[in-house]
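[agent] plan:
  1. take the single chain provided in the ticket
  2. run structure prediction with default settings
  3. attach structure tokens to the ticket
  4. add a short note for the reviewer (M.T.)
[agent] executing step 1
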Amino acid sequence: MDQPRRLCAAILAFTAVIAIAGAAWAQAQPAAPKLSITDETLPPLNVGIDVRFPLHATGGVPPYHWLLAAGELPPGIVLDPAGFLFGRPQKPGPYGFTLTVTDSARPANTINKEFNTRVKPALLLEWLRPPEVHDNRIDGVAQVSNGTEQDDFDLTVIIVAVNDVGRATALGYQHMTLKPGVTDFEIKFGSTMPPGTYIVHADAIAEILPKGIILRQHLQTAALSVVQGP
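[agent] step 2 finished; step 3 output follows
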């Protein structure tokens, strides 16, 4: 009977030694760095331009899990729980939201961070001088802008006057490369017109060739009347 007792006592003693050693080892290990989100700003966002970019966290115990805690992501943008924001922004404007990251520690560590960003139009078409009737002419000036930071536009602008029976008369046409960051590029247009009532339509089509993306903008006026013929 003594031998089993001695064996049991030895096992208990060994287990105690292992537990003490494990506790001492754990105490000797440096604590994991504090969990933090290292992103300060987000990359530029443009309407109609696909984006995918990673979010960054350090410290704690990877892997991390991300979620939207408050606010609103830009329409068209989705948060991947693995830590990516991706999608195609749909609407310009300012947006503010709070992201939460949780690590894999037990118990888990969690931290929040607020972000503010602005979605800008990639392609912008505006009337610089809206179409007007002068005697027997319709004249005006449009302007186009490339709001991206790195994408060349293969740009076509077509401006036509459409009469009340659907006949279109060209007032202006431009085909060009519009460089990133070029704003308010002017396009003058005009033509003599027969008497009638017209609606002026302006269409801008920008293709980003390397990405296979096509952007479109459209403007149109109220009815304009030409009384005096050419």
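[agent] step 4 note for reviewer: The CA atoms of residues 186 and 207 lie 19 Å apart.
[agent] ticket updated
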